[in-house]
Write a structure and sequence with these properties.
Layout lengths: L3 H13 L2 H8 L3 H15 L4 E4 L2 E4 L1 H25 L7 E7 L4 H15 L3 E7 L2 H9 L5 E6 L6 E16 L28 H9 L16 H9 L5 E4 H6 L7 E4 L7 E9 L5 H13 L8 H6 L2
Parallel strand pairs: 3-4, 3-5
Antiparallel strand pairs: 1-2, 5-9, 6-7, 6-8, 6-9
Helix pairs in contact: 1-2, 1-3, 1-4, 2-3
Amino acid sequence: MLSTRQLRYFDALARHRHFGRAAEECAVTQPALSMQIREMEEALGVRLVERGRSGVRLTPVGEEAASRARGVLAALADMERTIRDRGRLLEGRMRLGVIPSIAPYLLPRLLPEMAGRWPGVEIALRESQTEQLVNDLAHGDLDLVILSLPVEHPALETKALFEDPFLLAVPESSADFQGETAAAEDILAADLLLLEDGHCFRDQALNVCRKVDARQLRRFGASSLSTLAQLVANGQGVTLLPQMFVASEGGRIPRVRLLRFPDPAPSRTIGLVWRRTLPFRDDVEQVAAMVRACRPAVQDGEDRRSALL
């Protein structure tokens, strides 16, 4: 029978594709890790790893074994967590991941609310891009992730929380955009400013501007929405901004006009993601409700109308 040690060693090797780095992560010598992998192969009667001068490759059955090993290790982590925290996610330590285009605008309101309602929770935050957070969640390194849907992963479940509409941000002095609404077909590739590759918001913005030829985009990618807003304010181009960001700025950005898209306006779906094996379903629902309640929103009435004109 395979041991959890062998599964941990194999999972590390599958992720690093390097015996030395995998051994370092597992705090063992390289020969010790290699021996455990060989014993695992002998027990299964198949080759999991191709060893060569160019590095380590997994065989097709090795890829399947790696996926199953990750699932087993994540389930074991969830079992230990359930017992240690007496069946509650909202007691003890909760590991929460959030993508960069959400974290600065949601967390300042969400974290105090969570601390007030669940004082026994210690929240360990991780801010990173979607792909990394999804991998960490599937591997059992995170408990919950707040990001933009959709996310498709066989080990994960998702829950849509709310829609976050997009606005077109143009320089206040721009003569190219007149009126109160924006049209995606009026956006030129040479003017469009985007986040750098790897951010899901970049892909979402390009999906809105479908007629834009990505090959004509500037060789520039910002790392934050704040940078994009400042570039627009200084006349460097136009960009799409989520309403969540605009609300965090008080509904207005100096020297920038914010234009609405006609209905149905483009938007992103903010959602919560967790592992299917996570047993704290009631706690997940409570966190989802609180995230939804803490959604940043521009004020109603005249403030809201002026912010979007």
